[in-house]
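[job 4471] stage=fold_predict status=RUNNING
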Amino acid sequence: MDNSHRPPSSLIIEESLEPETLSATTSNQSTHDTDLGIGSQAETSITDVVSNAEIGWMEETSKAVTKFTTSESPVSPTAEILKSAILENITEVPATDDPEASYFGFYAWMTEIFFCVLSLSSLIVITTVLRAYDGKALPNLPMSITLNTFLAFFTTLTKATFMLSVAEAISQWKWNMLKNKERPLTDFLAVDSASRGMWGSFWIMGRFRMNHVAILGAVISLLGMATSPVTQQMIAYPLRLAQVEGIATVPTSSHFEDNNGFNVWHAIFAGVISTFDDPILPVSPVCSTPDCTFPQYKSIGMCAKAVNITSLLNVEVIPNSNADDWPYPAWTGMIAQNGSTAMNASLPNGISWVTPASVSYMAMPSNKTMAFANDTNMAFTAFEYMVLIWSNAGNITNFESNLTSQTPWKFEAVEVAIYLCLNTYETEMSQSQPSTNIVKSSYVPANVPNNVGNFLAGCWFEKFPGTPFGTQKFCDTGLYVDGNMTLVDPDDPSTTYSADAKALHSIDINLQEADLATFVSNGNMDPGIYATDTQSLALANVIYNDYENDLLLDPAEQFERVGTFYNSTANSLTNLMRTSSSTTVNGTAWKDETFVEIKWGWLVFLASQLVLSIIFLLITVISTYRMRIPAMKSSALAMLLAPAEEIRDKIGDIGHFEEATKRSGGMKVRLINNGLVVSPGRFQADDNA
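[job 4471] inference complete, writing structure tokens
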């Protein structure tokens, strides 16, 4: 290194020294400690503070000054003046052992600090941009750039910039660790290798075993391998429903008025021929997209409620019955008359069912309720009380045989009320599949003048030879009246819902005629089935499931199926009420949308590496400053200048590189201001090798 620009160290000379003493003192200073690499200092020293970095320059200066001041030639006045001037100038030069300012302190690390700031800025950009798109629809960025491309670029930039600082900081530690302690030369090589890549990081982790601060840099380097794939986990693209412009309506009605008897009959007919497997559901909404949602809404409608009344049945055995005991003459010839056992299942309101067939049921409207006798609201709003009685004895009565016992068969009974009601609905369309649920239902009559009550009329069977099914049905009919049946909304008593009395009268008549039905089977496959109305087979399938093969005789399941069947009729009438009105409820149309979901936890991995890098750099900068070591880092020039001639003499030259590599493991070195020197007595390699 050229030292011509460096100021000389101050030399303090005792005025009382004789030339001989000064010469001896100067001679002593030139003796060097080969371990520490600094000149030894005598008690009567020419110098008080000597810079180790400039010891060579000071030796030459000291010899010149000594020769001049100890000269035995006569001293002329001019010589004395020159001598005094030299001594005076040397004394006034301030002492220093600091390296050049450009290679020392924070100023020497400005590049690394800049890269850390750039890395932090890149991380802030990542956070800002992803935060802006978090929870938003998938963006259309210029040039078809995706968020993953953006994230990959800035992740690489973030990692690359802080890794530059980490690499330089690791390189500096190969110098720092030799300042206060001699180490094998291979430690120097290991740390230098760690600053260059993954394998060097593994090397020093295995060599130092977490006992050196440079390990932190190695850990950061190894973590960097997983940075890109880990940060890509931050962005997910799930689907969600997004609101769009479209049609979303569902019909509702606050008043029903339809005097078209065909519409009423058609709605009832659709209900009574429905089955448990294919019931009529509430009217579907109109939705221009596969998905629509609607607020809760209310509508006037018809409801059905079923109650088990089996406990009210009285079953009596009619032994040796014949056709005169049966309500249907057409059974003659199908069921054995001589000694056939018949059963009479009756209820307190006078309805009874006499049948010699163990697989049979009867459905009959009634104007006298048993299950709802104490429900005053039901008494006002009901259109029909339907009573069903069926036998669960099993298939035991066949043609020309009598396998029945005298023990009463098992009968079941249920009463169904069909009435005007006010329903609160929740409707949605999901993937083109409509779904409507009744949240709650009420049937509270409003306290208004001329509020019309129910139109109940009784129906009964009567033998009538010549009819297709051997019987005739008779139903009372009421008179047409003017007015409305009005219900009040319990949630808002000021709001009422109503239905026209004449329209309700039409429903009453058609319901009673349609719901009168019987079914009898003799247990054979052919044809062995006698019914009295259109709905008889449908209701028989509901009660017995498959009446031609395995019978359903579980009462609990039968009650559930019967309730669903009559709800189907109620839904059909409600749909008529809702669609005959022009009132609709507007909903919201939705479509599937891909949106951006940021999983911020994955960003911690990248951010923690940056934080560790900054900490590692600060530790390195501060340690280097306190050790008074130049920031040589990965400088190739420093690597060329550092080794003393002694090191090259000991381990060999580049022509014997492999042998030199082996020898370096046994050499311990230490850093002084002049460079790397061999610690005395530490070289273990075989010089004769």
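[job 4471] summary: Residues 248-287+299-424+443-591 form one domain.
[job 4471] exit 0
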